[in-house]
Structures are given as structure tokens and as C-alpha cells.
Write a structure and sequence with these properties.
The chain is of the alpha/beta class and 261 residues long. The chain has two domains: 143 residues, 3-Layer(aba) Sandwich (Rossmann fold), CATH 3.40.50; 111 residues, Rossmann fold. Strand 1, helix 1 and strand 2 form a beta-alpha-beta unit. Bound molecules: D-glutamic acid. D-glutamic acid (DGL) binds next to helix 3. D-glutamic acid binds next to helix 3.
Amino acid sequence: MIGIVDSGIGGLTVVKAIRELMPHYDLLYFGDTARTPYGPKSAATITQFAVQNIEFLLNQGAGLIVVACHTAAAVAGDAVLEKCGIPLIDIVSPAAELALRTSRSLHLGVIGTQATVQSRAYPRKVAALNPKARVFTSACPLLVPLVEAGWLKKPETVMIVKKYLYPLKVRQIDTLILGCTHYALLAGMIQRKIGRQVKIIDAAHAVAHAVRKFLETHPEVDGQLPRQGDLKLMVSDVTDQCQKIAGIIMQKKVKLESIRH
Ligand code: DGL
């Protein structure tokens, strides 16, 4: 099956996007809700958690792994890849590639967790793809807790979003990467505050397309993946609130299975 991993439940945005694009593939999601959020943690801790999560998915029989968590992908990138030994697609690369294809001015903005922004993974990836592009970043540490609390439309959230976007607005970016799983739930608000002229990059859709493209060009991997349409959603801790947010993301009632790993 395709294993999809995130620090919590935000990565369900990636599950939804993959499901919509490739409904027949068996998917296993693992969200590390017991240890989330990763964003404020050190690189060493994030890397350790990321490797453990990958090992868990490997033990479950994943034939392809998607790192849906920007923080884990940005901070633990190479360590995770080395450990994996099977094809792995991370969310940072497809989001950066789509942003570059979308932008005209090559002035890109990225918002993400503290760890994602500190890692400079997005600026490095973009520079490797197109050295002429400029990347401006803004860390938004309060947005994950606000989304998890369900404060999706509160005036306080609008105010905080506006403050976080200001440093990017003054740089006159024309494309903005939502560099965190949770921000898709605030996409409308972010669009209004950054301005209609800025194109928003939804990383979940970018990675779903990258997965499809990978499988089209790697029949030896594709042929091994079961296609019964199974969907298993596992998390390391289940609470009513994460069950509720999972339902909002998937736009239907879903059952999260609690698993110790
Ligand atoms: N999943 C994380 C990301 O995409 C956000 C939540 C966290 O901080 O763990 O960056």
C-alpha cells in the first residue's frame, strides 16, 4: 500500500488529495498525534520521530511512502531518505516545483512552522531548481494550534494571519506556498489577506500529482501496490478534537484507529 505519514492529522489533506486522484490505491495513514506538534521541536527530535514513523510504515508493508509533513520533510529530508530503502516522496519538492511553474515574477513566499522556516529547505530546493528565483519566508507558529482548536473563522485568527503575511506582502510575492499541512484549512482567509493577485500553492494537491506521476513512470513500484481502495487511518493518540478535525478535513465522518508504535 501507499503509506502516508504526518506529525498529526493535518496530513489527511494529502490523503484526501491522493484519494481523489487515485481512488483505487490502498492507503495507510499514520499521524503521530501523541507527539504533535513537531514545528516547535529541535531538528534532532524531529528527525528521530520521522525515522521512527517511516520504520512503522515499512513494518506495515508500505511499498511507497509519502512524507506529508512539511516539518519532517524539511528537517529530516536526507536522514529519512537514507533509512527508507523504498521509494519516498516528500511534500517539499512537489510544492516548490509547482510554485516555480506558477510564478511569473519568481518572487515566492513560503509560510510554515518554525522548524520548516529555520531549516531553509524551501529556499534551498527552489534555488537548486532555479537560482534566479527569490524566496521569502515567514514562520507562523500560532496557526497550527489555532487550526487544531477549530478557530478557522475567528477574528483573532484573521488578525494573526495578517500579521504573519505582512513581511511577505511587502516583498510583492506573486506566489505563496502553504508550507504546512494545516494551512489548507485557512486557505480562504490567507488568500484574502495576501491579496487576490497572489497565487496560493496547495502542497497537498502538488504531492498527489507527484505520486501519480511517479507511479506512471515506475511500473515496477506501481505493479506491487494493492488496489482494493482500502483506507486505514492510524494515529498514535485519539482525542475527540482530532477526530473532529479529521472529519472536517476529509469532509465526512472518519474513524481514526489508535496505535502505539
Ligand atoms: N504537519 C506539520 C507540517 O506540515 C504541522 C504540524 C506540526 O507542527 O507538527 O509542518
